[in-house]
From TrEMBL:
Family per similarity comment: Belongs to the V-ATPase 116 kDa subunit family.
Listed name of the protein: V-type ATP synthase subunit I
InterPro entries: V-ATPase_116kDa_su
GO terms for biological process, alphabetical: vacuolar acidification
Native organism: Marinilactibacillus psychrotolerans 42ea
Its EC number(s): 3.6.3.14
Membrane topology of the entry: Multi-pass membrane protein
Residue stretches in coiled coil: 108-135
Lineage of origin: Bacteria, Bacillati, Bacillota, Bacilli, Lactobacillales
Highest taxon listed in the record's lineage: Bacteria
MF (Gene Ontology): ATPase binding; hydrolase activity; proton-transporting ATPase activity, rotational mechanism
């Protein structure tokens, strides 16, 4: 069983040691703190109370939001390293003490204020630029106006009007002005939507002009500048230039704030960590002098915890009590999977489906060999496998690939080996048939399909046997036979029948196969009847259970997808090679090289995607469905953020 054995942990210490203890737990990153208020007896709860750290948590959240905003803003201007450089750069590793000392010795609020000042300054520049751009657009339209509109105000005999009218109304305006005997007009500019005019007329015709312009929506010019349009435009452009230069200088200054960015990153780590400890305090019970904390921990990490607590607080500062997991707690206990380095990357397949419950088995090592075979049969190309191996090897060996990305790279690296192995088995190298092979994906399709079905039957039998073993351990003996062993024996009997009647033509073997299958058919009915209090109902359930044979037929047929996808991938690769091969020599070794690389890359991606998806599907539906329920929840320890740095864990 690859599920870590867990212990329920209870810690009791003096109030003055609460922060230090939670800090030690957080640095260990292996303990999930849980609430005690729901599990302790009422007479004990009367002596303690749950602390309310809402205000403290809110303060840290608010400061964390300010830090995140400042960091996000600064990051816009600091150039990101190139992909290769980024992959080669190792993330900094700090202890919790080193992190906290650095942040406490840095004026984080001052840095936030500094960033906010620059942000406000740049925002002001941006707003001013937009206003100047609008003014520029206005002035460019009116730059042909060679006098200031205020100069023509207050004339005794004449009125001067400067304004615009919509294009469709311009002919009517001109017609109306022509009817006025003293009117003079001149076009200043024309745009796609409007035309500007200078209009001069005698004062006695002002009423007629107003009546005309009201109907045509003539818009009088409102000129807010002291300078002429041409001069105002020149000043405007100079102001814009100055703003651009000031903006560039500010951005250049922020661009050099790498140290500021690093300090903000560490502050983000620190505030998140403190916030998590404040949340954990809400799960702790407190009295005037003592507090009690409880949680889950892996059994093999208990000694490490005791060592850390003794180092940080002293040997007698904390009372440590542990309890074994009770049966009624199986649904609540968090799950940690323990597998060796070869199988561990495949835990991601299990996690995508569901973690096992504490009383189940980890299906990862059981599924592991089948996943290798399925992926290899679908990929089934030596060239594709070599590329996958080389790409993942280079990433793991020469680049700083960490965390979940590293696990996924290891996962793909392991899968490269069965891909190459089946590529040799089927004699395929980038769709080119190798001179040596065991079977051919072009000529031996039926044989490959039979092999796929045989592998599928083996996995189904294995899953059913596991079902029987698990239910037998849980004390469900009748169910272990009816739902597990009996169906496994029936499939084995069917396999023996096929061997005896089709492969070897031995009547005795055929009869043994039929007999084994029929005995277990009868066994399902008999055991279902005996184990049920209502015998008639049990007999009916036994007959209904036999109806499940249709589902097993469907399961077996599902495994033929291994053949279908493997053959499809190989034939598509071969077809691409043929297409390029038909090109004339000149194009074949120029455009053809680029074309074949692109086509093979596309087929490689589709092949591996199909292999991943369909191999997972066969595990989830056909295999896991026979013995695995899932529903476990992962261990969520009190831990640090680890977004920008890695924490140096205590052990």
């Amino acid at each position: 069983m690859a599920i870590a054995k867990m212990k329920k942990l209870t810690l009791m210490a003096e109030q003055q040691n609460k922060e230090t203890l939670l800090r030690s737990i957080q640095e260990m990153q292996s303990i999930e703190v849980i609430s005690l208020s729901d599990v302790l007896e009422e007479d004990i709860l009367e002596q303690f109370e749950v602390a309310d750290s809402y205000n403290e948590t809110l303060d840290y959240k608010s400061e964390l939001q300010d830090i995140e905003h400042a960091l996000s803003y600064v990051s816009q201007f600091i150039p990101e390293p190139g992909m290769i450089e980024k992959l080669k750069t190792k993330r900094e590793v700090l202890s919790l003490e080193e992190l906290e000392n650095h942040v406490k010795n840095t004026d984080i609020k001052g840095l936030i204020s500094q960033v906010q000042d620059k942000e406000e300054e740049l925002n002001h520049i941006e707003e001013r630029k937009k206003a100047l751009q609008e003014e520029e657009s206005f002035l460019r339209k009116w730059r042909e106006l060679k006098f200031h509109p205020s100069e023509v105000n207050g004339l005794k005999l004449l009125n001067v009007h400067i304004g615009t009218v919509d294009n469709e109304h311009a002919p009517m305006l001109i017609g109306g002005l022509d009817e006025l005997s003293t009117a003079y007009y001149e076009e200043i500019f024309t745009r796609s939507d409007e035309i500007a005019y200078l209009i001069i007329l005698a004062k006695e015709q002002e009423e007629q002009f107003k009546k005309l312009t009201t109907e045509l929506s003539f818009r009088e010019l409102k000129y807010p500048f002291e300078l002429l349009p041409e001069d105002a435009l020149y000043s405007n452009l100079n102001n814009q230039k100055s703003l651009h230069e000031k903006e560039a200088a500010l951005k250049k200054e922020i661009k050099g704030w790498r140290s500021v960015s690093r300090d903000l990153q560490l502050a983000e780590e620190y505030n998140y960590n403190v916030g998590q400890r404040e949340l954990a305090k809400d799960l702790v019970l407190n009295s005037e002098h003592l507090f009690i904390a409880s949680g889950w921990i892996e059994e093999d990490k208990l000694d490490s915890l005791k060592h850390i607590i003794n180092t940080d607080l002293g040997e007698d500062a904390v009372v440590i009590m542990t309890d074994d997991v009770k049966m009624e707690e199986f649904d609540q206990v968090p799950i940690v999977l323990h597998n060796n380095s070869l199988i561990k990357p495949f835990e991601l397949i299990t996690e995508m489906f569901s973690l096992p419950k504490y009383n189940e088995v980890d299906p990862t090592p059981l599924m592991f060999p089948f996943f290798l075979i399925f992926f290899g049969m679908i990929g089934a190309d030596l060239g594709y496998g070599l590329l996958l191996w080389l790409g993942t090897f280079v990433a793991l060996r020469f680049f700083n690939v960490e965390g979940s990305t590293r696990r996924f790279m290891k996962f793909l690296h392991i899968l490269a080996y069965p891909t190459m192995a089946f590529g040799l088995f089927f004699g395929s190298f980038f769709g080119i048939s190798l001179p040596f092979h065991v079977l051919s994906l072009q000529d031996d399709v039926i044989v490959v399909m039979v092999i796929s079905v045989i592998i599928g039957v083996i996995q189904l039998i294995f899953g059913l046997i596991m079902n029987g073993i698990i239910k037998e351990r849980q004390g469900q003996r009748a169910s272990s036979y009816v739902d597990g062993y009996a169906w496994a024996m029936m499939l084995i009997g069917l396999a023996i029948y096929v061997l005896g009647s089709i492969v070897f033509s031995i009547p005795l073997v055929t009869q043994i196969g039929i007999g084994l299958a029929l005995i277990n058919v009868a066994g399902i009915i008999v055991v279902s009847t005996i184990s049920s209090k209502n015998k008639a109902l049990g007999f009916g359930l036994g007959l209904y259970n036999l109806y499940g044979v249709t589902g097993y037929v469907g399961d077996i047929v599902s495994y033929t997808r291994l053949m279908a996808l493997g053959v499809a991938s190989a034939n598509i690769a071969m077809a691409f090679n043929l297409i390029v091969g038909y090109l004339p020599p000149l194009f074949r070794f120029t455009i053809g090289v680029v074309l074949i690389i692109a086509l093979q890359a596309m087929n490689l991606a589709l092949s591996f995607l199909s292999a991943y998806v369909h191999s997972s599907r066969l595990q989830y539906v056909e295999f896991f469905g026979k013995f695995f329920e899932g529903g476990g929840k992962p261990l969520t320890p009190l831990k640090t953020l680890e977004k920008h740095i890695w924490l140096k864990q205590k052990n």
